[in-house]
Amino acid sequence: MSDDNVLKFMKEYGIAARAKCLDVPENVHPHLWRHSRAMHLYQSGMDLTLVSQWLGHAHFNTTLIYAYADTEQKRIAIEEATSPMNPLREGTSARFRVDDDETLKKLYGLR
Predict the structure, then answer these.
(1) DSSP state, 58?
(2) What is the pTM of this model?
(3) What are the backbone dihedrals phi and psi of residue 62, each rounded to the nearest 5 degrees, phi first?
């Protein structure tokens, strides 16, 4: 089966899947699987240099496109950087949980 044939099938099935679930991206293509798998590995804790080697990138900078952190990774990093003496670490942080990247950026003065 040729690359073009795989792309054709994926586009057709992507359109059919999107008709049932709007979470399916509009442009489904073979590289999407590669990108998704690399992101899952990175978000599961695999070091980015290992992800780079697994993908076969000649230059580490190519892999940096996978290095953006999702909201959960940001929340965990902020919690880890927060002093254990902070009242937010005592289990009350659930009322302050924010899952929106733009709101997180505003709250932490990044935007």
Answers:
(1) S
(2) 0.55
(3) -65, -35
